[in-house]
Write a structure and sequence with these properties.
single chain, 681 residues, alpha/beta, OB fold (Dihydrolipoamide Acetyltransferase, E2P), Rossmann fold, 4 domains, 7-stranded mixed β-sheet, 7-stranded parallel β-sheet, 24 helices, 22 strands, binds adenosine-5'-diphosphate, binds magnesium ion
């Protein structure tokens, strides 16, 4: 039963589809598709000088060609050149066509290109590229580019298409002359031409390590496009109107006076930045970034009260029930004494309760609402929404982020994140947001001690958990991540729980995992926060935001399977009270090289920014960001952690948008084409 194919998507096996896969839709795209490396076909190497492992071009005559059957069917061609009359170089073809066999006849003159290796009978090359030549076949005068490609799209086809595109391309320079001179960057056309077809006197090592002014130009252009599009998106949102929330100070001052602690300098600064934004007639677009435990919640509470005392509603949305519930409890505890009711809205509420909450919010009776993405469902209306706060935004799907954006059309937005992005990255990653950073932890915390323990010593760890709990403390036991199978992960958690219950009969053990009913989950968390459960066995659902200050011991099994950000988040669940806390990372051998590096980093560092920086160095920015969020156009040539160049691109973007918007348009069109839409999600 054949389905009618969609007419506008090219079939998977057409040239168009393959080009599409590489993101190549226009001449401009082809022109910006730059080589990965080069091959030198401008010179001929004598067979005598062939070096194993070094690709080179040889000009040869075929001595003989035969099909061998051992170890499998293959075409073996013996060739010689003037320096090697014995004919000791072999060409081996494991796949070959009759048309190729026809060319490879004794006496044929060929130029071949490939990487020789030492064989039993002398040098041999497997699957060399070859073409017949005559006495006057000229040698190319440029290096041959090798492009990134995809299955079914050969280098020669790509080269032909790119060659054609280069002939018809628009070569106008989008950078003003003065800027180019100031940054010492070459002309666009010169840079691009050089990279596609470099003269042979440029060392290949420099071309391939991208250490050339021409590459610098390309990298700059790419970063500039990214900065331009982010700044444009920012400006577009800023052009919209939002209610000016002036704030009487009545509620915020009362909350500050009632708190058992004083704001840290960083909290105070962030809170003032937010209050200033809220007083503007256009939407705030701010990110509040702070390591785990830096105290983002109180800043959010102050911002919400500011909205309320200005006569508006405020909503706080969290990615998980556990986290939302915790925010709800904390806010209620702070705000009830001020006479402010907090509404609670999640998918797990009973139908009636939910309808009642929605009705109250819709009538504008409740000013503060906390919940999960149930907040942005269709039937929830906020007549006076002034501020929407999203915790850990990257954990929501794109669709939910868009829905929230719709709901909060005319509202101020604050995003909170405990994922520390290194400052260098934040500059470009968050070019479309204003950022407040909590770079200071509340006083009185004792740093968490981290221990690495081999699996064989599990019993000792259990003993330690026992002692800690008997002494009035509490502990988390995080079960291994099993990426392939959620079912297996749950099974392991269940088994770990049962075993710990058995081994620790005199302490209360609880279990929490992602598949439990919300009410059950909430009950366990509640019992844990009241110290009725002493040891909480959990999957990574506790990764974000759970705040139980009395818990001072964290055990993570198969720590070698976790990513650094995750380990850091998990460890951040302890060390929240005054007691000395510890995090025990149990690892099982064998530990791979990368996993070992991760464990070393988490063992040696407690500062989230430093961990993120080293994580970045370990994985490279592509993956670091890829895993985190979409919406940012991927960089092909530049590195986000090239701070100096990012900074220059950022300044240039400001300048272009201000002084030469038509150049900014042309630049965006060249580099992002239709892909700019992606940024708006
Ligand atoms: P996070 O930034 O990880 O969301 P929280 O907002 O959960 O951090 O705060 C962590 C803990 O620190 C909470 O128990 C909170 O009440 C407490 N806290 C926040 N700010 C301060 C402060 N200035 N002084 C002392 N304790 C604070
Ligand atoms: Mg938090």
């Amino acid at each position: 039963m054949a389905e009618k194919p969609a007419t506008n998507t090219p079939k998977a096996n057409t040239l168009g589809a393959r080009l599409e896969k590489l993101g190549l839709r226009s001449d401009t795209d082809l022109v910006l598709h730059l080589p990965l490396r080069y091959e030198d076909e401008t010179r001929i190497t004598a067979i005598r000088d062939a070096m194993p492992g070094i690709a080179a071009q040889f000009e040869v005559e075929v001595v003989d060609a035969e099909i061998a059957f051992r170890p499998r069917r293959q075409l073996v061609v013996r060739v010689r050149d003037a320096t090697d009359a014995e004919g000791a170089m072999l060409l081996r073809f494991l796949n070959f066509y009759p048309s190729q066999q026809k060319v490879l006849q004794p006496g044929a003159r060929l130029r071949i290109f490939g990487e020789p290796r030492g064989g039993f009978l002398g040098d041999e090359i497997i699957h060399p590229r070859f073409h017949p030549v005559t006495d006057d076949t000229p040698l190319p005068d440029r290096l041959t580019p090798v492009y990134p490609t995809t299955a079914g799209l050969g280098q020669s086809t790509l080269r032909r298409l790119i060659d054609r595109a280069l002939k018809r391309a628009d070569w106008s320079d989008t950078l003003p002359e003065a800027l180019r001179a100031q940054l010492k960057l070459p002309d666009f056309a010169d840079a691009i031409r050089l990279l596609h077809t470099p003269p042979p006197d440029i060392p290949q090592a420099r071309l391939e390590s991208r250490d050339l002014p021409a590459w610098r130009r390309v990298q700059f252009d790419e970063l500039l496009a990214q900065q331009l599009s982010l700044r444009r998106a920012y400006a577009a949102r800023r052009a919209k109107g939002a209610p000016r929330l002036k704030g009487s100070g009545k509620l915020t001052k009362a909350l500050l006076a009632a708190l058992p602690f004083r704001l840290t300098g960083a909290q105070d600064r962030a809170w003032k930045e937010i209050a200033a934004d809220l007083g503007q007639p256009h939407p705030m677009q701010r990110l509040l970034q702070g390591d785990v435990g830096s105290g983002k919640t109180i800043v959010a509470a102050l911002a919400m009260l500011h909205a309320v005392e200005s006569g508006h509603q405020a909503a706080l949305m969290a990615p998980t029930e556990i986290l939302a519930e915790q925010h709800y409890r904390k806010l209620s505890q702070w705000l009830a004494p001020l006479g402010i009711e907090v509404a609670w809205l999640t998918g797990s509420l009973k139908k009636k309760e939910k309808a009642a909450a929605i009705a109250k919010v819709g009538a504008g009776e409740t000013a503060i609402v906390v919940g999960t993405h149930a907040l942005i469902e269709d039937d929830v209306a906020f007549p006076r929404l002034g501020l929407a706060i999203v915790d850990e935004q990257h954990r929501f799907g794109v669709r939910q982020r868009l829905a929230l954006k719709e709901k909060g059309q005319f509202a101020h937005q604050l995003t909170m994140s405990a994922t520390p992005i290194p400052r260098t990255l934040a500059m470009s990653y968050y070019a479309d947001l204003d950022v407040s950073v909590l770079d200071e932890l509340p006083p009185g915390r004792t740093p968490v001690t981290t221990k690495l323990v081999a699996e064989g010593r599990r019993e000792q760890v259990i003993g330690r958990v026992h002692d800690a709990c008997r002494a009035g403390g509490q502990a988390y036991w995080v079960c291994p991540l099993i990426e392939e199978s959620e079912a297996l992960q749950l099974k392991t958690a269940q088994e770990t729980y049962e075993r710990l219950v058995e081994e620790l009969p005199d302490i209360q053990v609880g279990l929490v995992h992602g598949r439990m009913k919300a009410a059950e989950k909430a009950a366990v968390m509640e019992a844990f926060s009241r110290n009725e459960v002493h040891l909480l066995v959990a999957t990574t659902v506790i990764e974000v935001g759970v705040d139980v200050p009395n818990a001072s011991l964290m055990v993570i099994e198969h720590a070698e399977r976790f990513g650094l950000a995750q380990l850091h988040q998990l460890r951040g669940r302890v060390g929240r009270g005054a007691a000395q806390s510890a995090c025990i990372l149990i690892y099982a051998k064998p530990v791979g090289e990368i996993a070992r590096a991760r464990l070393k980093i988490i063992y040696e560092n407690t500062d989230g920014f430093e961990i993120a920086r080293q994580d970045l160095a370990l994985r490279g920015p592509g993956e670091f960001i890829g895993a985190r969020q979409s919406g940012l156009p991927l960089l092909r040539y530049a590195d986000l952690d090239d701070t100096v160049l990012v900074e220059k691109a950022r300044a240039a973007a400001e300048e272009l948008l201000r002084d030469a918007p038509e150049r900014a348009d042309a630049h965006l069109k060249r580099w992002l084409g239709g892909r700019e839409e992606l940024l708006k999600a």
